[in-house]
Write a structure and sequence with these properties.
Elements (H helix, E strand, L loop, with lengths): L1 H13 L4 H16 L5 H11 L6 H14 L2 H13 L5 H17 L2 H18 L4 H12 L9 H10 L3 H29 L10 H27 L4 H19 L5 H34 L2 H12 L3 H15 L5 H18 L4 H15 L7 H10 L3 H7 L1 H16 L2 H11 L1
Helix pairs in contact: 1-2, 2-13, 3-13, 4-12, 4-13, 5-6, 5-11, 6-7, 6-8, 6-10, 7-8, 7-18, 8-18, 8-19, 8-20, 9-16, 9-17, 10-17, 10-20, 10-21, 11-12, 13-16, 14-16, 15-16, 15-17, 16-17, 17-20
Length: 425
């Protein structure tokens, strides 16, 4: 039944149907042809999939990201990153990575991070003497850090479908995100030194202070959110509403770059993005329910455990499955469909769901950079006006760095668990 369903969905995707339609049609097909359950149940499950208080955070974080982008925070974050690391060999490229870390901590979205920072930095890197392939590949990869570094929309979805603490997941995302960012910065330094890119002068303390003052209101958002969550002032879902209020205040009253016409446009654009994400959540949730209701998830989990009960083998197998799924599914769909099954197996062999959540996120980060449905590839194509195959080739070196980071996160659990253990245990 699983193979039939996956074949039907794959055929729908190959025909060019939107992901939500492919998932919903696959669910109706599975119920109507392969079971005796009334098809109307799928319509009910589509609604039930998004009838979740935790998922209310998604439209709020999307709106907060749009507000901060419209406020012009990306330029200020890039200037701050330049004064912090721009004087290193490959400093401008490293500054692009640091700016993606900053913006990812504000937006919680990988495509938003790439669109905001990449649209500025790719052109700047090429003008500074970096190759076009290096510039496109680096910024497409660095933009994907937005999916790992808290607050992350995909981490919220993982927590909702697996019952894992979102606060612990946010804490667990910091060190892996910073580690992969650090590996990309080392890559930038090596490439800058190898290609003889001229060094920028060291900034003065005054220049650093000015850059922090200009970027400070934007950087205050992740501090406010995470401080509020870990102090118990508000829940992760409530923090999303706080982010919207903060972004509105910064854009309207501090930076004064958002007026009424732009606010209407921001609300329209964020509404479209939120609706798209929640439709995908609904379709994936219906398919996940179908697999669970027919006992298929339990049967598959039992079968996997009969193959091996060695944690390192199970994790290797799941990494391969997640990477392959990233070729055909977007991040949210992959998490909703696969995470409940995989967490059932990994919990049985003693792997913490928080640790496995970060493993899943790094995998779907790779998926966002791989054709044919890697969302960040399409964003990079749009901002560079390059064909898909050109962008896909450009990201190979930096994607291999992320793959190395995935191996480290998978088999060195303390990277993910150090902060959650310190804060919650």
């Amino acid at each position: 039944m699983v193979l039939v369903l996956l074949s039907f969905i794959a055929a729908a995707l190959l025909l060019g149907l939107p992901i939500f339609i492919a998932l919903a049609l696959g669910s109706f097909f599975g119920v109507g042809v392969l079971t005796s359950t009334p098809p109307v149940v799928i319509a009910q499950r589509l609604f039930a999939g998004i009838d979740n208080f935790t998922l209310m955070a998604i439209p709020y974080f999307v709106l907060a990201a749009e507000l901060m982008r419209a406020a012009g925070i990306a330029d200020r974050l890039i200037n701050l990153a330049k004064v912090l690391v721009g004087w290193l060999p490959g400093g401008l490229a490293a500054a692009g990575v640091v700016a993606c870390v900053f913006f990812g901590a504000i937006s919680g979205s990988s495509p938003a991070t790439l669109a905001a920072v990449g649209s500025i930095m790719i052109v700047a890197l090429v003008r500074a003497g970096y190759s076009e392939n290096f510039s496109i590949g680096l910024m497409t990869t660095a933009g994907s850090l937005g999916i790992i570094i808290p607050p992350s929309i995909t981490l919220i979805v993982y927590g909702a479908v697996t019952g894992t603490s979102i606060g612990q997941l946010f804490a667990a995302g910091f060190l892996p995100g910073f580690m992969i960012a650090g590996m990309l910065i080392v890559y930038c330094v090596i490439m800058g030194w190898w290609n003889g890119i001229p060094l920028d002068p060291r900034p003065s303390f005054r220049e650093i202070g000015i850059a922090f003052r200009h970027a400070g209101p934007g950087l205050g958002l992740p501090v406010l959110l995470l401080g509020g969550i870990y102090s118990g002032a508000f829940t992760p879902t409530e923090s999303a509403a706080v982010a919207v209020a903060y972004g509105l205040i910064v854009g309207v009253f501090v930076y004064r770059t958002i007026d009424m016409p732009s606010l209407v446009r921001i609300l329209r654009d964020s509404g479209l993005v939120s609706a798209t994400l929640l439709l995908i959540v609904a379709g994936a949730s219906a398919l996940s329910w179908l697999l669970a209701s027919q006992g298929l998830i339990a049967k598959i989990a039992t079968h996997i455990l009969t193959l091996s009960d060695e944690p390192w083998i199970i994790l290797l197998l799941f990494n391969i499955v997640l990477i392959i799924s990233g070729l055909f599914l977007d991040a949210v769909s992959a998490v909703i469909i696969l995470a409940p099954l995989m967490v059932k197996v990994t919990s049985a062999i003693g792997i913490d769901p928080v640790h496995f959540g970060i493993i899943t996120l790094v995998n779907v980060e790779l998926g966002m950079m791989t054709p044919p449905v890697g969302l960040n590839l399409f964003v990079a194509c749009a901002i560079t006006r390059k064909p898909l195959h050109r962008v896909a080739i450009a990201i190979i070196p930096s994607a291999l760095i992320v793959l190395l980071g995935l191996i480290m996160v998978t088999y060195l659990p303390w990277i993910s668990m150090a902060l959650p253990n310190a804060l919650y245990k």
